Amino acid sequence: MITIEEIARGRTLAEAQGMTAELGRAIAGMAEGALAEDRLRAARDMLEGLVVTNPRDPVAWALLSTVCRRQGHAEAARLCAEAAVRLAPDDPQARLARAETQLLWPAERAAGCEGLRALAVEPGGVGERARALLAAIGPTGTAG
Fold first, then answer.
1. N or C end: fewer C-beta atoms under 10 angstroms in the chain?
2. Which fold has domain 4-137?
3. SS3 content of the chain, % helix, strand, coil (to 5)
4. Distance between CA atoms of 76 and 44, rounded to whole angstroms?
C-alpha cells in the first residue's frame, strides 16, 4: 500500500509494489509488440498501467503518445509526448513522439518537421522513422 504522503514525497506505486526496472521494460516491450501488431487497446492498457505505477518513465509516456495518436486522440497524444520530453528532453524516442504529435497541429507542424530533421541523423529505428516521415511530408511540409 502507498499513502498520499509517500506520493507527495515522490515515491511511485512501482516502488511501493517492488516493481523492478526490468519488469517495467518487459511490460513496455510487450506493449510495443502489441502496438506493432496494431492491438492498440492492449498496448494502451499496458502503457496506462505503466504510467500509473511509474509516472517518471519517459518510454512509457512516449509509447502511450504513439498509441493515442494512432487511435485518433490527438490531445491525449500531445500531453503524453510532452510528459515524455519533460522527463527526458534528450531522449530520441521521446522527441520523436513529440515531433509526430506536432505534425497533427497546423500551428506546430513546422516545429514537428524541425524535430524530425534533427532526429533524422539518429541511428536505428528513430532515425529511420524520422527520415521516412520527412520523405512522406516532402519539402513543403505537407503530405503529398
1. N
2. 1.25.40
3. 75, 0, 25
4. 12
